[in-house]
Design goal:
The protein is α/β, with parallel strands linked by helices and 349 residues long. The chain is 24% helix and 26% strand. The chain has helices at 18-30, 47-53, 74-88, 99-112, 248-257, 265-269, 300-306, 335-348, and strands at residues 4-8, 11-12, 15-16, 36-43, 60-65, 92-96, 115-120, 122-125, 128-129, 138-139, 145-146, 155-161, 166-170, 177-181, 199-204, 233-237, 260-263, 290-294, 311-316, 329-332. It has a seven-stranded parallel beta sheet with strand order 7-14-6-1-4-5-15, with helices on both faces. Helix 7 links the parallel strand 18 and strand 19. The N and C termini lie far apart (55 Å). Flavin-adenine dinucleotide binds at residues 238-240, 264-267, 278-283, 295-297, 299, 301-302, 305, 315-318, 321, 334-336. This is Electron transfer flavoprotein subunit alpha/FixB family protein.
């Protein structure tokens, strides 16, 4: 019997978050021929975003508008999604493993009496790698993968445990299912190539009775900056940066490369930067394509947040620094000399 899957998408500053397209990729990988994938979009003034989403391989985009949905509020979001869940009775929900996804997914799983697998970094079927590694097969004209083995086989969700020290392979034994995907691990779904568009169903959110909390305002410290957890390039500074001012060359390089600045806890504890930039076991987990560690020794707690990066570059004046043991490229030198040289070289390139 064909199934319906629902992606709960996220936007930021009026832009669709890339992790939502990675969640769509996860759903495409789980779907069999004949299954339908729908997307939910919540907020205000969604026409542009709904039209953009409709260009992806989806059956329908459900744009749910409401003042209470302008900022994330679990009660309002669950209330807005409830009629859609009732109507679609999805076999699976897919969300980004973001702050919103981590909060909303278990609440939706409880509502649906669903099982949940969180923080997925790869999807395999019958033991064969499907995503997050070597890609097989091509894309169909509608943007869906065509790998010729959509039928049968058990879907295995891969997720790191204990700050990346172990890998868990999990399977669901029943429907419905709720899945959150870690940013920058699965490839983002591509728009349809055949020019087709999904149906956009726009509706006003039904008022939620007895809303117990209302979000009046959200003040983002990193407004307008690239989200650290989704950045393709991260330039991170450690205690070796020595001061808040010492982060300027890193910010300049990040700005030039379209990346984000991160930090070790050493740098945060020393007051050089905000804890919102902390990467590691007790900070954010990042998996960019390029991670440049500047003046970071490479403590195990820091590695827990960045060792999944595709290419790691370390700049440290101590040749014995542990960070070099996991770096793909190491530069032994003073970061205050090396970083401006890199910036200069990229500017000339
Ligand atoms: P240091 O270890 O002091 O390293 C500074 C480095 O800079 C040195 O290697 C030095 O050679 C180099 N350096 C100095 N000057 C220069 C220069 N001019 N040019 C180039 N290199 C230079 N840490 C995290 O990062 N994230 C976490 O989430 C985290 N969680 C933790 C949780 C727990 C429970 C505990 C106990 C610790 C945690 N830590 C975490 C702290 C961690 O153990 C380290 O103390 C911390 O990562 C060290 O930060 P650092 O590398 O910036 O500083």
């Amino acid at each position: 019997m064909s199934k319906t899957y629902l992606i709960v998408t996220e936007q930021r500053d009026g832009k669709l978050r890339r992790v939502s397209l990675e969640a769509l990729r996860a759903a495409l990988d789980c779907a069999e021929a004949g299954d339908e994938i729908h997307a939910a979009l919540l907020g205000e003034g969604l026409d542009g975003l709904a039209a953009e989403l409709a260009g992806y391989p989806l059956a329908q985009v459900h744009a749910i508008e409401g003042e209470e949905l302008r900022h994330y509020n679990p009660e309002a979001y669950i209330g807005a999604l409830a009629p859609l869940l009732e109507a679609l009775r999805p076999a699976g929900l897919f969300l980004g493993h973001t702050a919103l996804g981590r909060d909303l997914a278990p609440a939706l799983a409880a509502r649906l009496s669903a099982g949940q697998i969180s923080d997925v970094t790869a999807i395999e079927r019958d033991g064969g790698e499907r995503d997050g590694g070597e890609r097989d097969g091509g894309e169909r004209d509608d943007g869906e993968r065509d790998d010729g083995e959509r039928h049968g086989g058990q879907i295995v969700f891969v997720r790191p445990l204990y700050a990346g020290k172990a890998i868990e392979r999990k399977v669901f034994t029943a429907f419905p299912q709720v899945v959150t995907v870690r940013a920058n691990n699965l490839p983002a779904a591509e728009p349809r190539r055949d020019g087709g568009t999904a149906i956009v169903a726009k509706r006003a959110a039904a008022p939620v009775a007895d809303l117990r909390t209302v979000v009046r305002e959200v003040v983002r410290r990193t407004a307008g900056k690239i989200d650290l957890t989704e950045a393709r390039i991260v330039i991170a500074g450690g205690r070796g940066v020595k001061s808040a001012e010492g982060f300027r060359p890193l910010e300049e390089l990040a700005g030039l490369l379209g990346g984000a600045v991160g930090a070790s806890r050493g740098a945060c504890d020393a007051g050089y930067c905000d804890y919102g930039l902390q990467i590691g076991q007790t900070g954010k987990v990042v998996t960019p394509e390029i991670y440049i560690a500047c003046g970071i020794s490479g403590a195990i707690q820091h590695l827990a947040g960045m060792s999944g990066s595709r290419v790691i570059v370390a700049i440290n004046k101590d040749p014995e620094a542990p960070i070099f043991s996991i770096a793909d490229f190491g530069i032994v030198g003073d970061l205050f000399e090396v970083v401006p040289l890199l910036t200069q070289a990229f500017r000339q390139a």
